[in-house]
Amino acid sequence: VTVVAAHDGADPIDAALPGPDRLRVAIIGIGLMGGSLGRALRAAGHVVIGCDLDDHRLQRAVELGAIDEWKPSITAAARGADVAFVAVPVLQVADAVVAALDAGAAVVSDMGSVKGPIVDQVRALRPAALRRFVAGHPMAGSEQTGVEGADPSLFTGRTWVLAPTPETDADAYATLRTLLASTGADVVAVEPDLHDELVAVVSHVPHLAAGTLMRLAADRSADAGVLLRLAAGGFRDMTRIAAGDPGIWPDICAANRGAIVSALDEYLAALGEIRDLVAAGDRPGLFHLLEQASRARRNLPVSAASAGPLVELRIPVPDRPGVFANITTALADRGVSIFDLEVAHSAEGGAGVLVIVVAEEYVERAEQALADRGHTCSVHAIG
Ligand SMILES: NC(=O)c1ccc[n+]([C@@H]2O[C@H](COP(=O)([O-])OP(=O)(O)OC[C@H]3O[C@@H](n4cnc5c(N)ncnc54)[C@H](O)[C@@H]3O)[C@@H](O)[C@H]2O)c1
User: Fold this and answer.
1) Which of 29, 91, 213, 319 is the most exposed place for a label (fewest CB within 10 A)?
2) Span from the CA of 169 to the centroid of ligand 1 (angstroms)
3) C-alpha to C-alpha distance for 378 and 31, rounded to whole angstroms
4) pLDDT at 304
5) From the alpha carbon of 149, which atom of ligand 1 is closest?
6) pLDDT (tens digit per residue) in 104-150
7) C-alpha of 327 from chain center
8) From the CA of 225, how far away is ligand 1's center (Å)?
9) Measuring from atom 1 of ligand 1, which residue has the nearest CA?
10) Which residues lie with the beta carbon below 6 Å from any ligand 1 atom?
11) 187 forms bridges with which residues in the sheet?
């Protein structure tokens, strides 16, 4: 294994840079997420510079192929980066994002599981730089922990949320989107606060519920060791996520407390409802409730992406703050996945054309979503 020296002055990879599609990417925090992203981006041909508080982890990250080299500070890692990702615990994210913005990284994103408070903090600390920051959250996890568990295919076919704001620069978003697509992720735009409400239901409460159920069974197993051996597929499916790294959860619960408490209250009320049906021996009531759940579960899409022919929507965009986030989130609200996105600037500057690629089957929905927000578009088949 060749370990590339960290901060000895010479930069061993500069000579190989840059092909037009080969980006210089900084990753701050090389744990499970940062390490997985590093491995995925290196496999896609990009150059990855790591930074972490723990030098031992960085050495391991080089040995495991998660990074090309490492730097001793966020500033050194992010300086000259085309894109910098922050993959540290949620409550540390905003400060690290600010450091990466200050170092001059062209685009900065993060991988934190909560978005609203991070965007708010960055907006308060560096309002002028917010255009270069696009908050993000890969909806992917693993029971593995740390860089040792890093998996380059972790993001393949998984949804990666980007949370553009009215300040977001369309070019920054497009660069990030294209880079993330090279990991195999399906990128979806969702507003930061809406993201937090939704993940409370589909990610945070499930984790807390799985942990609780697992604890309940483990307590019983002290009396009857055979119980956990009886644990069949259903129990294993429902508690698999409880094996994940507990370290990230106190931060997530602190940062998204309001939405998680609301979702837990709804869950408790729903458990109370089903408890009462069981207690009352209400067979039709129980059947009805579980039948609804069964139907909803079977209708859950396997992936946000859809196959089939693609078309290009060309949308003239005025030079007005918020237009870009307005369009990407309008499409996401209607369930329209964006396959590719580019900004064609007009020669005079100012206004330009946003080129968005979507599945042909979603064209009408996309046109309607755009019309609702006062935009027109022309539609072109691709290929
Ligand atoms: N693990 C998951 O399932 C999952 C899924 C989606 C998003 N996330 C988010 O990704 C982020 C990272 O999670 P993880 O599971 O990879 O955690 P992790 O603990 O495996 O890795 C975090 C790394 O960041 C480093 N670090 C902490 N503070 C730092 C700082 N100020 N500067 C530089 N390095 C620092 C730590 O030393 C560690 O190596 C979190 O914000 C988490 O919410 C995690």
Assistant:
1) 319
2) 26
3) 44
4) 52
5) 20
6) 999 999 999 999 999 999 999 999 999 999 999 999 988 888 999 99
7) 19
8) 35
9) 141
10) 28-34, 51-54, 57, 87-90, 92-93, 96, 111-113, 137-138, 141, 146, 244-245, 247-248, 252
11) 160
